[in-house]
UniProtKB/TrEMBL annotation:
Residues 2-89 form the HPr domain. PROSITE patterns: PTS_HPR_DOM, PTS_HPR_HIS, PTS_HPR_SER. Keywords: Cytoplasm, Phosphotransferase system. GO terms for biological process: phosphoenolpyruvate-dependent sugar phosphotransferase system. Belongs to the HPr family. This is Phosphocarrier protein HPr. InterPro entries: HPr, HPr-like, HPr-like_sf, PTS_HPr_His_P_site, PTS_HPr_Ser_P_site. The keyword Transferase does not apply. One of its GO terms (cellular component) is cytoplasm. It comes from the Bacteria. PANTHER family: PHOSPHOCARRIER PROTEIN HPR, PHOSPHOCARRIER PROTEIN NPR. It is found in: Cytoplasm.
Length: 90
């Protein structure tokens, strides 16, 4: 299965180290390959350095491509994490 969806980073600090770490931790629980794309720059969601290199600040729109048997479940968890502002106080 393959999913392609977009999502906007809404937390105040963007995809900083702690948020990126939470994203990598969430993505790593799934078999599916999860790729984040910001304006043509791709990052493996299971690699902390790759995610940090996106430098995604608040308001950045990411295209997320997920390929694998558990793609739907992976999307649900990743989208929830981002939409909950990585559980940070705003």
């Amino acid at each position: 299965m393959k999913l392609e969806k977009s999502i906007t980073i809404i937390n105040k600090l963007g995809l900083h180290a702690r948020a990126a770490s939470k994203l990598v931790g969430t993505a790593s629980r799934f078999e599916s390959k999860i790729i984040l794309n910001r304006s043509g720059q791709e990052a493996d969601a299971k690699s902390i350095m790759s995610v940090l290199m996106l430098a995604a600040s608040q308001g950045t729109e990411l295209q997320i491509t997920i390929k694998g048997a558990d793609a739907e479940e992976a999307w649900d968890h990743v989208a929830t994490l981002i939409n909950n502002r990585f559980d940070e106080d705003e």
